[in-house]
Amino acid sequence: MAKANESATIDKSDNSIGKSPAESSVLVVGAGGIGCELLKSLALCRFRSIGVIDLDTIEVSNLNRQFLFRREHVGQPKATVACDSIRRLCPSINIEPFHGDVITDPRFDISFYKRYDLVINALDNVQARQHVNRMCLLCSKPLIDSGSTGYNGQATLILKGRTQCYDCIEKPKQQRTYAVCTIRNTPSQPIHCIVWAKFLYNQLFGDNDDPNNEDVTPDADDPENGTNGQEAVSSTTENGHHRISTRDWIQAEMEEFQPVRIFNKLFFDDINYLTTMKNLWEKRRQPIPIQYEQARQIQEKTLNGQSDHEQSATPKLNDQRIQSINEYAQMFIESLNELKQRCDKQRQAASSSKEPAFLVWDKNDDADLRFVTASANLRAYIFGINLTSKFDVKSMAGNIIPAVATTNAIVAGITVLQARKVLATLPRSSNDHTLTSIKQLTNVFISTDRKTGAIIQSIQLEEPNPSCIQCSDLEQPVRVRLNMSLFTLHSLYERLIRKHLKMNKPDVIIADGSGRILVSADDDEDEEMMLKTLDQFKLINGTILLCEEEYDDETNEALLQHMKIKLMLEHTDTITDKNEYIIVDDQVIGEIKQIKQSLKRKHIEDDDDDDDNIQHLDDYQNEINIVKKTKKLSTSHDEHNNGPMHTSFVMLVDDQASA
Ligand SMILES: Nc1ncnc2c1ncn2[C@@H]1O[C@H](COP(=O)(O)OP(=O)(O)OP(=O)(O)O)[C@@H](O)[C@H]1O
Ligand SMILES: [Zn+2]
């Protein structure tokens, strides 16, 4: 029935009879829970050409639902093993694994995406989804974004310019946020202590440059304290530990690292200091500081009438049991020692490799999890809050909603049906992948919300959001190839944006939906910051920067002009010179060639050597070992009359690409 409808809507006269699965090539990004189901279903539905990207290796915890993997595969790349398993199921298939990060791996550039008819996301995080969304918009590839959360799931279509893209609607924040004062001063729930423990981990071992790396020291500026910190600041504890941030205190302590001293600062001195902020405790139970030696004597496991798991009728696994304060104190010291050693090794390794010089908390790492479990429970005990098992800490700290294998199977099945429908609308014999008819396409949601009346629902495709930063402005960005770990912010701003793109003093904004400003036109330049390399700002392969400035046109003061250039950064290791970059955009190469030819003709006619539309950049040729030509392209629009404006920028093209 569905098939009859589909073929009825396809216009055969314009050669758009659709592609069959066997004729199509599909890229699957993510070979986890949904990815495994998806690959199996695609293979069984006669898809014959598939690419699979996944960055991860197989873990024991994947085996219960990621059925393409077996115990003997643990530690091996997911993409490779998934493809091997599919080949066993379907020997004639052409399936190619790519073990790498879809965001940062330079192999996955625009030309890579162009090899496929359709892209399917089977990912588990927003950042990677946003990246694939951006890449598919840039090269006009249809994308199906599949996902599941517990019993809910979806397979949504993203078709450039015709449907909403992944970023058209702001996503609800996945992680709940908590007031910093609650976390630092007045926790009242286990989750507050868990969040504090994760902050503590980052203060001790995390990325010091990360603006989200929150302090855990008591905060005397808490408005509830009402004294602007004066009273509290004057009443110092014995050794004054609270006066400096935990990170600074730790830096000073690192030489003669003494875990018991750290324990006593966090759970005794800091808590003592908190108790001096009297206003906080007028209507709350005041926290009770404990020292390490005291903690080792406390065998308590339950608080405030919390049900004792030991006595519960249901048998518990070790990790599901609440332990005693004595055990948590010991766990704190042991995991702290372990992480300190790991952090030292990491720092050493970082000096000779690209590894970061810090640790990143991982719910699947046992020492990481033990550290947060122990710290959170010690703090909970001090504040009279119920304790939490290691098992529950893992779920709460990792924001985990358990994966349901059945939901994944349903989502994958629906996604394959969606894929077949999308391909049926693609012109068969040309390389034009513009969809011809999308009337029969819908988004599909799986929902357990009974109010909607149906578990599987087809919802009409929505129009793109005209103010979406990713898809409203479909103008192609200028692609710049450079080495992110060598190229500095200074080179980007001064050489590329100001000198070559001829912008005056623009704001440079990271167009990832965060609105993060990389360089502000209004602020004075921070020299130290400008000398940092692009990767230190967490800019990655495919990052799009929006360079924007407003200024009065000297010729007409009343007209406020608006100049905007989008840059897409493409990382390459092959560039080894810190000043070198290549601006290359195959979308405009044809146009450039045409203009060059017409200029050449003009050049011959005029015999005019001063034609400034083509110049050899002698001053750059020594530094950049690529012959470049410059060409003026008009860009941007006059905001007032929508007509083309005379703003122009210079584009550098390497000869090879334009040849
Ligand atoms: N940037 C990325 N590049 C490539 N693959 C990615 C990227 N981000 C996530 N993935 C992959 O997407 C898949 C998502 O699958 P899934 O949601 O089942 O997660 P998982 O990590 O396998 O499971 P769990 O988190 O429950 O242990 C994972 O295999 C993960 O490695
Ligand atoms: Zn959009």
Automatic annotation (TrEMBL):
A Gene Ontology term for the protein's cellular component: cytoplasm
Sample GO molecular function, one term: metal ion binding
Ubiquitin/SUMO-activating enzyme ubiquitin-like domain span: 480-562
Keywords noted in UniProt: ATP-binding, Metal-binding, Nucleotide-binding, Ubl conjugation pathway, Zinc
Biased composition (Acidic residues): 210-224
Pathway participation: Protein modification; protein sumoylation
Region (Disordered): 1-20, 210-243
Keyword Transferase set for record: no
Annotated residues for binding of Zn(2+): C165, C168, C468, C471
Active site residues of this protein: C181 (glycyl thioester intermediate)
Protein family according to the UniProt entry: Belongs to the ubiquitin-activating E1 family.
Name listed for the protein in its UniProt record: SUMO-activating enzyme subunit
Higher taxonomy: Eukaryota, Metazoa, Spiralia, Gnathifera, Rotifera
